[in-house]
């Protein structure tokens, strides 16, 4: 043991001792033989390291440095470069990356540079793994002339509604656009390159909630102006919403749509603050705030506090903007809040022109760890719920749906379209097109590629003239790949994709069509047939209130009078007295809410051929028996071949 202790102590302080020896030896050499440059170099290096070692011994912040002076710094150096070491030397091509695999990043780089993205020798994916997905192809392929798929947003069909400002300037949007990323989070050169790329290939660039900067305007690319709770670019001095400033900004022909940010996937329900030291004159000008003062973005809006007020705010922005499309972005949280918004649409007859569903897996900047990992619904569940709800209340034809959340390649686009999206947004995909290497230091200001920094020297590395064409090429080549997928599936446009086109492996021996796992709701089913819908709707729809984001617990009499949510006792409908007794016994005002989302799925206002008019009987349960999230009904577990399932569900 004594020998081991001596050895350990020798290793711990050996570097410090060698530095001391180096200093003494160099001094002795200079005294005996004179001063040469080599001796001076040895002395300088040894003295510097010796000083560092002495500092390590006396400092109290890091125990590892006190025990391992000088040598302990290797731990911090290796920790600092760990992401790069893993990314370049350890991580496999299809191994789960953080958050994107090397294969995903590579396809973005290839398409952005315009180099071939073909792969020899077959797929590297495990086609037998649970969760593997593919698109069923057709023996009757199609030919599509152009990959420039577009949709109209705003100007929904129908009779003009009295007292409601119509959308008179609908926008012909690409089905693939740049997600919201603010100037300040991104560098000036990154904004310039993204907007010029959008201009070159004809798609939209979302400004993020940080306002419209001069860099957004320089190249004239189409803008979606996002307005968050800070009302940057359209705020009064006290931080409240300013009609005058909004109207002035919205009148710019470059602004094609207005987007109210209710919540974002990266950190839903979380506000933010930009320290005054980071509020430069350029950022202050874009946001309409004083230079050098802390900039607070509240967690909630001050312009509205109820679903009804949100609808009137949408109508107000549409009127002030001269009839441009107005919508909102949200990450699904409490289901009754979303249902309350839909009820407000029905009550006021005011609808947004579009809704962007932001998945919890999104996030281009930085967020608290718990928010990034455990807050908000993923995009698939959120998209299911939003699209199906709008179909169930006969509003889907009036509202377009966008989706965002780890959309990188054409299959990601196809899956979103099948799940109900009309178009998709991508943030990190376009960041990688600019050259992002996923160093994951966005929040530090030390971005190695000059994208997420305000450091002029780092920003200088991003050359706009070189990167803007890459943004355009990534967009064009991704849509070209989507066109080829559609042709192989026998389709002509992304709006023809439905859940029955996507197949998902359940386990080693079973696969299911996505339409079997996420059935389509019938038009108006929530309004006229709530009793036979999934329990998500049967439970939460009655709780929703158009006049409040808080749930409205039904009374025992409400439960007894509502067949859609009425519990049963011994297989028979419970009476009001029995329900009241049960509620009192359990000491809660309502049946226990589920904490997961399992909404049925719908595509657009057109139902797929042969889709069921209601959920299967085995999905119907009482208010006391709720399905778990993602569960597949046990009575429908029969294995289906891909072909047979396609014939059955298509």
Descriptive account of the structure:
By secondary structure, this protein is of the alpha/beta class. The chain folds into 3 domains: 2-80, no CATH class; 166-498, TIM Barrel; 518-620, no CATH class. Helix content is 39%, strand content 10%. It is built from 24 helices and 17 strands. It has an 8-stranded parallel sheet. Strands 1-14-15 form a 3-stranded antiparallel sheet. It is globular, with a radius of gyration of 29 Å. It starts with a helix and ends with a helix.
- Total beta-strand segments: 17
**First and last CA, distance:** 75 Å
Q: Helical stretch count?
A: 24
Task: Report the radius of gyration as a whole number of Å.
Answer: 29 Å
- Helix proportion range: 25-40%
What does the overall shape look like? globular
- Average pLDDT for all residues: 81
Give me the CATH fold name of the largest domain: TIM Barrel
Class per helix and strand makeup: alpha/beta
- Main beta sheet: strand number and arrangement? 8 strands, parallel
- In terms of DSSP E residues, the strand content is 5-15%
Task: Provide the spatial order of strands within the biggest beta sheet.
Answer: 4-13-12-11-10-7-6-5
**What is the CATH superfamily label of the largest domain?**
Aldolase class I
| Low-pLDDT windows of residues | 586-650
- Under the CATH scheme, which class of the largest domain? Alpha Beta
CATH architectural designation of the largest domain: Alpha-Beta Barrel
Q: Can you tell me the number of structural domains?
A: 3
């Amino acid at each position: 043991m004594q020998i081991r202790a001596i050895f350990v102590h020798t290793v711990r302080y050996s570097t410090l001792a060698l530095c001391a020896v180096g200093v003494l030896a160099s001094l002795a050499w200079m005294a005996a033989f004179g001063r040469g440059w080599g001796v001076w170099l040895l002395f300088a290096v040894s003295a510097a390291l010796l000083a560092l070692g002495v500092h390590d011994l006396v400092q109290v912040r890091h125990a590892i440095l006190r025990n391992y002076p000088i040598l302990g710094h290797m731990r911090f150096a290796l920790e600092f470069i760990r992401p790069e070491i893993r990314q370049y030397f350890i991580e496999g091509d299809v191994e789960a990356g953080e958050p994107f695999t090397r294969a995903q990043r590579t396809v973005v780089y290839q398409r952005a540079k315009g180099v071939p993205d073909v792969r020899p020798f077959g797929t590297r994916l495990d086609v037998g793994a649970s969760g593997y997905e593919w698109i069923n192809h057709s023996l009757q392929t199609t030919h599509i002339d152009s990959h420039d798929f577009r949709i109209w947003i705003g100007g929904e069909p129908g009779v003009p509604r009295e007292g409601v400002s119509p959308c008179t300037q609908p926008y012909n949007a690409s089905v693939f656009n740049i997600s919201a990323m603010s100037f300040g989070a991104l560098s000036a050169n990154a904004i310039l390159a993204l907007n010029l790329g959008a201009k070159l290939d004809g798609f939209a660039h979302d400004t993020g909630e940080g306002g419209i900067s001069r860099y957004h305007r320089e190249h004239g690319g189409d803008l979606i102006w996002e307005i968050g709770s800070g009302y940057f670019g359209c705020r009064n001095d006290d931080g409240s919403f300013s009609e005058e400033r909004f109207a002035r900004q919205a009148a710019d022909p470059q602004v094609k749509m207005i987007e109210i940010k209710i919540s974002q996937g990266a950190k839903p329900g979380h506000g933010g603050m930009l320290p005054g030291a980071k509020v430069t004159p350029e950022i202050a000008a874009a946001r309409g705030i004083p230079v050098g003062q802390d900039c607070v973005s509240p967690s909630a809006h001050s312009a509205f506090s109820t679903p009804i007020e949100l609808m009137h705010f949408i109508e107000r922005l549409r009127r002030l903007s001269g009839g441009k499309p107005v919508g909102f972005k949200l990450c699904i949280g409490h289901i009754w809040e979303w249902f309350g918004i839909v009820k407000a649409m029905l009550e006021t007859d005011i609808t947004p022109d579009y809704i962007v569903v932001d998945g919890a897996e999104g996030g281009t900047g930085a967020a608290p760890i718990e928010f990034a990992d455990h807050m908000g619904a993923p995009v698939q569940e959120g998209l299911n719920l939003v699209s199906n709800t709008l179909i169930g209340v006969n509003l889907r034809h009036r509202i377009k749906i966008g989706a965002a959340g780890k959309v990188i390649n054409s299959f990601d686009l196809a899956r979103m379209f099948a799940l109900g999206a009309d178009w998709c947004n991508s943030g990190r995909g376009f960041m990688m097109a600019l050259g992002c290497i996923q160093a994951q230091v966005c929040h530090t200001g030390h971005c190695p590629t000059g994208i997420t920094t305000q450091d002029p020297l780092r920003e200088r590395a991003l050359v706009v003239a070189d990167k803007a064409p890459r943004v355009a090429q990534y967009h064009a080549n991704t849509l070209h790949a989507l066109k080829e997928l559609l042709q192989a599936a026998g389709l002509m446009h992304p709006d023809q994709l439905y859940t029955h086109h996507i197949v998902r492996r359940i386990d080693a021996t079973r696969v299911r069509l996505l339409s079997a796992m996420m059935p389509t709701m019938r038009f108006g089913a929530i309004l006229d047939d709530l009793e036979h819908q999934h329990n998500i709707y049967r439970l939460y729809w009655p709780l929703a209130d158009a006049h409040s984001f808080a749930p409205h617990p039904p009374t025992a009499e409400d439960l007894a009078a509502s067949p859609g949510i009425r519990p049963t006792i011994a297989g028979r409908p419970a009476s009001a007295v029995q329900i009241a007794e049960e509620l009192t016994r359990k000491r809660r005002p309502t049946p226990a809410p589920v904490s997961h989302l399992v909404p049925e799925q719908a595509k657009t206002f057109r139902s797929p051929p042969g889709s069921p008019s209601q959920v299967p009987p085995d999905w119907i349960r009482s208010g006391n028996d709720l399905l778990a999230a993602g569960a597949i009904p046990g009575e429908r577990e029969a294995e289906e071949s891909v072909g047979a399932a396609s014939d059955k569900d298509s």
